[in-house]
Task: structure prediction
Amino acid sequence: MSRRALIAGNWKMYGLAAALGELDALSAALAQQPVDADVAVCPPATLLAAAAARLKGSPILLGGQDCHTAPEGAHTGDISAVMLADAGARLVIVGHSERRRDHGETDALVRAKAEAALAAGLTPIVCVGETIEERQAGQAEAVVGRQIAGSLPERGEAVVAYEPVWAIGTGLTASTAEIAAMHAFVRGVLGARGARVRILYGGSVKPQNAQEILALEEVDGALVGGASLKAADFSAIIRALK
Ligand code: PGA
Result:
């Protein structure tokens, strides 16, 4: 079964209103040279509604970067999946390593968020990945396997993003051999549903390395941080798709 590629940009805590101009540029680039893939941008939640208005008629999908487990409630500062959908999002990143680190998010919490996303009609992008210490200790597969078992909803259309923590924002990418091996491992862990689940790679994906990473057999796309902030870089990555 062939899976449609997905290239998703994660703007993290970057982007004021002026950054919406990058979406216009991205949209124009895709209109000029359409791609047979899903392209998504996850801006800060403050920009979602404006981005949705701006992207009306564009194939670019919008996503959130996190969501609460409940559809609404007394949770000051949090945003629900229902709210993200209402603002125009179609996807949401959950369990990013920065949230696991900064907010102590556990696998169980990440799974609950992913389930809330599915219930709101959003596609969750569930992030997993080992730290450098875990990799050096030979634990990378054990860690990722445990994260998948604990944080991926059992049913529903979820996307997995394998992002080695040591490759995020560091300029270090895993070697193609390391990526290929981990993606094959994840595909195996997913069992029968593995044929349908898209597995993205993330961690310092750039125009310069996108082609060799995206060409790997079990890599169905990329989750791109820093290089998604500029339309020129992000569209170069999109165009590197096989
Ligand atoms: P990076 O971030 O591309 O800046 O390394 C990727 C991510 O955190 O999703």
